[in-house]
Design a protein that fits this description.
Structural class: alpha/beta
CATH topology: Rossmann fold
Order of helices and strands: HHHEHEHEEHEEHEEHEEEHEEHEHHEHH
Strand order of the largest sheet: 3-2-1-4-5-7-12
Number of strands: 15
Strand content: 15-25%
CATH superfamily: NAD(P)-binding Rossmann-like Domain
Shape: globular
Distance between the termini: 80 Å
Number of helices: 14
CATH class: Alpha Beta
CATH architecture: 3-Layer(aba) Sandwich
Largest sheet: 7 strands, parallel
Number of domains: 1
Helix content: 25-40%
Length: 337
């Protein structure tokens, strides 16, 4: 009987022992090793997923992450180490770095297949150095397939109530909007120079009941006045959830180099918007004042918003991205809240 028992091959035992000592993956010392470390053969599922980097992962960035969920590998740049646990709890891999410190963001190069850039410019200077630094880093290694930049509708300036479509010439009336134009131009040049797909989203006023300062309630409670009907201006809005969904849609469906207005279907003047909200909340409507007297009662920021009137057209958003608004009007969004 003993002669019939097959003895293990000595060479096979040696090879198995050697394999058991090998780590499943190489030591992971950097974001690149974390994302790209592999062994021969098929990649694990977690490495086959698209990698989406969110730059500026505040309220809207978090909504983008929730919209994407487990379909992709989520990464987020944060300048605050205190936010790391929060981002991890959301299923996001946090990368601590600061767009104002170029050396701290070098490791972003080649990490992501798609990028959502929502970080605002600094409040000083003529251009957007933050966008400049980010794009310089993204050029260094494998380029992202697509980059979506969140700009502002303020780049149109005062349209005197006329309709603003994406082909309308930019006419920024504030230094804040001029910095956004600089960022837009840099992003579009990046796309042309590298072949990466890019989209610029021009975003109006963002609202949501679960967003800090995301509804007119606080202003209504304070009794902050609005312009009288004769002096009032058209404003534009988008629900924060619809904005996040538009960012995701642009990441995959956006035509290269295109600018898109991201606003709902509402056609409202600012005072009418606050009247609508007051009626919904059961609060008094705000007092109306003439433009001449507004400078003595309103902040400079609010005055700047009241000095520009435009009606944004969202046809391109709906047709090119095949996008359906969850909250087509402000009234529907506020009621849902």
């Amino acid at each position: 009987m003993a002669s019939q028992i097959r003895r293990p091959n000595a060479q096979l035992i040696h090879e198995q022992a050697h394999i058991e000592k090998e780590p499943i993956l190489p030591a992971l010392r950097s974001p690149h090793s974390l994302l790209y470390a592999t062994r021969p053969g098929a990649l694990p599922a977690r490495f086959r997923r698209e990698r989406v980097l969110i730059v500026g992962c505040a309220d809207v960035g978090v909504r983008v992450a929730r919209e994407l969920g487990a379909r992709v590998r989520l990464l987020a740049l944060t300048s605050s180490a205190q936010r790391v646990p929060t981002l991890r709890a959301l299923g996001i891999t946090p990368l601590v770095g600061n767009l104002d410190q170029p050396a701290s963001i070098r490791r972003l190069a080649g990490l992501a297949t798609r990028v959502v850039h929502l970080a605002p410019p600094l409040e000083t200077g003529r251009g957007d150095a933050r966008t400049q630094q980010l794009l310089a880093v993204l050029r260094r290694r494998t380029l992202p397939q697509h980059l979506v930049y969140g700009s502002t509708s303020g780049v149109y300036g005062d349209c005197q109530g006329e309709i603003a479509i994406e082909t309308r010439a930019a006419n920024p009336g504030t230094t804040r909007a001029r910095r956004r134009i600089d960022a837009e131009q840099r992003v579009r040049h990046f796309g042309r120079a590298t072949g990466a797909g890019v989209n610029v989203l021009r975003i109006p006023g963002i609202y949501a009941s679960d967003r800090v300062g995301g509804t007119p309630r606080e202003r209504l409670v304070k009794g902050t006045p609005v312009l009288r009907q004769a002096d009032d201006v058209f404003t534009n809005h988008i629900h924060a959830d619809d904005l996040a969904r538009a960012c995701v849609a642009a990441l995959w469906r956006g035509l290269p180099g295109r600018v898109l207005n991201v606003n709902d279907d509402s056609v409202l003047k600012m005072g009418d918007y606050f009247d609508l909200a007051a009626d919904l909340y059961g609060l008094p409507r705000p007092p109306r004042i003439a433009r001449d007297g507004a400078q003595n009662q309103l902040s400079l920021m609010l005055l700047s918003f009241m000095s520009e009137s435009r009606r944004m057209d969202n046809t391109r958003l709906k047709k090119e991205l095949r996008f359906k608004l969850r909250y087509p009007t402000v009234a529907q969004g506020l009621v849902a809240a």
